[in-house]
Amino acid sequence: MSSLPYLGVGLSYRWDLNPHLARGNPGVDWLEVTPEHFLPLTEDALQRLALLARRYPLAGHGLELSVGSDGVDAPGYMEGVRRILSTTKSAWHGDHLCFTRVGTLPLRALTPVPLTEEALEVCVRNIRRVQAELAVPFVVENIAYLFETPLDTLPEEEFLRRVVTEADCGLLLDLHNLHANAVNRRYDPYPFLDRLPLERVVQIHIAGGRTMEGLLLDSHSSCSPKEVFELLDYVVPRCPVRGVNFEMDSDFPPFPRLVEELAHARSILQRHGASKS
Ligand SMILES: [Fe+2]
Fold first, then answer.
1. Distance from residue 144's CA to the centre of ligand 1 (Å)
2. Residue ranges in the chain assigned as alpha helix (H)
3. What is the pLDDT of residues 110-139, one digit of tens each?
4. Regions of the chain with pLDDT less than 50
5. How far apart are CA 96 and CA 67, in angstroms?
6. pLDDT tens per residue across span 229-262
7. How far away, in angstroms, is 97 Cα from ligand 1 center?
8. CA–centroid distance, residue 50 to ligand 1 (Å)
9. Which residues contact 32 (CB under 8 A, 6 or more apart)?
10. Domains (ranges, CATH) in the chain?
């Protein structure tokens, strides 16, 4: 994973941002592209992706791979993702450590996998297969979740560690997901971080959420809180990160505020010499 290119600090690509990204933007180093936003694929979509790839380095970030599902992929899904990754010359591709379908039934939600030996085996098997099929490095992301399954037998950090080491893939560390879980379950995120395989971190997500009925939701609807930047400052010198990106899905502020968010993250990466690790 250390041979992967250093992308710097970027944004998750969203339609709302098009007017600010169309001609390239010096405040944005790279973009994360979600294949599901372009599926089912058309020639027009491929052309737009190719154009984007001429302006920014890109990496893929899927929603529907369903790493935790024991079964076959949705028809045509992998082929679509593969074509997008190849058109965009993606540096790597990521998806979440969760399941989004049961059999062929889509759940439309990132659902936590039971933290069991059996689920671990399924996740490892799926990631190994996906890495072989996609032919780009794969990174798996820790999710925010609001409930634990009664079946859990392993701590989340041990589950994460074993998935990435046994599947031999990278870790996409979402610091807002970690922050939200730590707030909602009242634990200290720093010892949790220390128990993760930080040497496997390829990418880091930063984001902001909102509080509803006493729970912090990972809604991607605000700028990152200070706790997320503090976690970033802690983790960057401890991992070989290749790219950080800010995820936002709604309630976009004026674009210069997003550039400011990236500049803040970039200053942390530069202070720790991240591009050289
Ligand atoms: Fe994320």
1. 8
2. 18-21, 43-55, 77-87, 117-134, 156-167, 175-185, 189-194, 226-235, 255-271
3. 999 999 999 999 999 999 999 999 989 999
4. none
5. 7
6. 999 999 999 999 999 999 999 999 999 999 999 9
7. 11
8. 24
9. 10, 11, 12, 13, 58, 59, 60, 61, 243, 245, 247
10. 8-276 (3.20.20.150)
